[in-house]
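Structure ticket #2291
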Amino acid sequence: MPEYPTSIGTSDADSITLLGQDLAGELMGKVSFGELAFWLAALRRPAPGELAVFEAVLVALADHGFTPSAIAARLTLTGAPESMQGALAAGLLGGGSRYLGVTEDCGRFLASALAAHAGPRPADDAGWDEMAVAAVSAQRAAGRFVPGLGHPIHKQVDPRTPVIFEIASQAGLLGPHLELLAAVGRVHPAILGRTLPLNGAGVCGAALADLGFPVDLLRGFALLARTAGLLGHLAEEMRNPAGQAIYREVDDAARYVPPGTAG
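Resolution: structure written out below.
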């Protein structure tokens, strides 16, 4: 018989074992959901400071109002009110380069810049700024956006950004990804010719990378957090529907244009 080894969990007729712990006797009522999510992904229990940063990230990414993901979820529930799973999935499927995916994209950008740096890590802001100049300049030369910069609503300061930096600093977890992103915030105006805020999604990606998570997992945490926000939107949609009005407004504003006609 083939074997399928797992370190996550198993069960038998009388018990459930998760991460080597008895689920009912050792975990339920004793660990928070955030702590368990960290533990499941890292296969180690987080230290208190790590948990503080991690849960702050989850809260920061949970909701941002009537975003495309929330609208997609609400409209799906409007069309299929019996399909909660479909509505949640619809909201999560839009987690890409412009929404939610920035968490991964920023972490990947910072990790690549750190990997490309020769020599020891910088010891002061000047050293981090030098590394950031090289990273931002390379993005500009390639015609690519710099992940973690800019926000469609928060034009001056994303209110989540300083809080994540502060929590990480207090926990002693202001690591190289956050240090480099802070430097990107300082140097980019001279390179890009305009000043953009460090966005919360990007800062969350840097904080998660400093917790030791591989960049390929970062979008998963953003989706985990946004699931809670979407569930809130769907609960509200059931209480006070908006989906039908959104559909009617779009339908009323639609204007047919014959194929090949300029819009």
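Closing remark: The longest helix spans residues 215-239.
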